[in-house]
Design brief:
With 473 residues, this protein is an all-alpha fold. Among the domains are: 76 residues; 74 residues, no CATH class. Helices cover 75% and strands 0% of the residues. It has 26 helices and no strands. The protein is globular and about 90 Å long.
């Protein structure tokens, strides 16, 4: 019995809070024991540091029933589960191998898959293929109801496909801006908000708008606006509009980043741990978000432990974007734990092995960590050599005017140049003061500038006390 409950506990503890909120909203249990079990699952999901044991005296069939009931009810609303069914049926339609029972199931789905369903667009296109399949076979019995569905939702389908074309255009501008070009994307804000809030649209289109709004608000560091969007989205996840474990994990990770930027670190940590409760293809990305939160909260040992345990995951990935991101945060974590020599050695080795990929994909993130490690190791001449060889300061200055710009490489290199005797104390002060004063107008940026100056002041507190005073920080 103990082993049985261990398996049930593992299953129950893998559930997300929003999943259980939904389950509680739809349950109509006839027995008190079933509700008691579900309530305990709910408590444990929301209190992972204070898990309560499940009652071993209850009939084990109760736990089997609850597990099956949960899986059935979640599968019924899981958009990814639905998509697997949809593409399977589409393949059989396109290869003329659909079975009679599958046809009946497809016809039955027309009664519940309306224009607001997450995969309405794909379902509509499946029915277009199926109608052709029926037409050529003169199958009027099924042809007529399928045609009725297509005619009924034709306008909604056209509206959704047109909206997605506009989303594609918005994506180009938003991602280009994120990649530091001169493209602006603020003009898409109202369109994206109206798309997300339009409950006549399909869920896929609406969630695409949320993802792009997230990018947009990060581009401009408008985290308060993003919080409003996520608070609305939070309520939707307790219903059956956007549900899948994949989407929930993505939501938790994005919410963790947002709370971290707003300096709401307890919430950021909570959502960060939720995002890594399930392993998926974005696990490393979510892990880095969480480790960033832990470092910000000065929980350096926890961050180091998590990253060290996840190195096997790093070796599995073929994504240089994730690989470089992981290594950059690992260097930062080593520094936070005062492992300076190890941080420098690790950065040196990785740079030699992946120089081309670093310069192509995530040069700024990596070099910020690398130069910080060299700075703490007092390897000032090497900082200057690397900065000059790869033109890092000029490349970084291309960020000027962007909400996310921070002169990390520029300022570390300037201080390194001072320590190497290349510039005077007056020149050091005037350089940082001039660039700093132009960057503190934005609320979020002023906080980050202050953090950067505090970091640099450890090398010479007297100089940076004067600099902060001149910048009005």
């Amino acid at each position: 019995m103990k082993q049985k409950l261990n398996k049930f506990s593992d299953f129950a503890n893998s559930l997300y809070p929003h999943e259980i909120d939904y389950l509680l909203s739809v349950q109509h249990f006839a027995t008190e024991e079933n509700l008691k079990i579900l309530n305990l699952i709910n408590y444990n999901s929301k209190n992972p540091l204070n898990l309560l044991p499940y009652d071993g005296s209850l009939d084990k069939r109760k736990y089997s029933y609850i597990k099956n009931w949960i899986e059935k009810n979640l599968n019924n609303i899981d958009v990814d589960y639905y998509y697997e069914w949809l593409i399977g049926i589409e393949k059989r339609v396109m290869t003329d191998s659909i079975l009679p029972d599958e046809e009946k199931d497809l016809l039955e789905q027309t009664k519940s898959t309306t224009n607001t369903h997450y995969y309405f667009i794909r379902f509509y296109e499946l029915l277009q293929h199926y109608r052709d399949y029926l037409l050529i076979r003169v199958r009027n019995q099924y042809y007529e109801p399928i045609s009725e569905y297509l005619e009924k939702y034709q306008a909604q389908y056209q509206a959704s496909t047109e909206r997605n074309k506009q989303l594609n255009s918005a994506t180009i501008d938003i991602v280009k801006q994120h990649s530091t070009t001169s493209t602006e994307s603020k003009q898409w804000g109202n369109f994206l908000q109206s798309t997300f809030l339009n409950d006549d649209l399909d869920g896929y289109t609406r969630y695409r708008a949320v993802v792009r709004l997230t990018f947009l608000y990060y581009n401009y560091r408008e985290f308060d606006k993003l919080k409003s969007i996520y608070d609305t989205l939070d309520k939707m996840f307790k219903a059956d509009i956007f549900y899948s474990k994949r989407i929930l994990a993505n939501y938790y990770a994005n919410r963790a980043m947002m709370h971290s930027k707003l300096n709401e670190l307890d919430d950021a940590e909570k959502y960060g741990y939720l995002s890594i409760r399930q392993h998926n293809s974005d696990y490393l990305f979510y892990l880095l978000n969480l480790c960033g939160v832990l470092l910000k909260s000065k929980k350096n040992k926890e961050a180091y432990s998590l990253m060290t345990e996840s190195i096997p995951e790093l070796k599995k990935t073929n994504s240089y974007y994730y690989k470089i991101g992981f290594v950059s945060f690992y260097i930062k974590t080593l520094l936070a734990n005062k492992n300076i020599d190890k941080a420098v050695s690790y950065a040196d080795s990785f740079f030699e092995g992946y120089k081309k990929e670093i310069l192509k994909y995530r040069w700024h993130l990596f070099f910020c960590s690398y130069i910080r490690a060299l700075f703490q190791a007092e390897k000032y001449s090497k900082i200057l050599t690397i900065s000059k060889r790869y033109n890092l300061i000029n490349k970084e200055k291309q960020f000027i005017g962007r909400a996310k710009y921070l002169p990390i490489i520029f300022w570390h290199s300037t201080v390194a140049n001072y320590f190497e005797g290349g510039i005077s104390e007056e020149k050091l002060e005037s350089t940082i003061i001039k660039s700093g004063q132009s960057l503190i107008q934005h609320k979020y940026k002023s906080i980050k500038i202050n953090e950067l100056l505090n970091e640099l002041s450890e090398s010479n507190p007297k100089i940076f006390k004067k600099i902060k005073k001149e910048i009005n920080l």
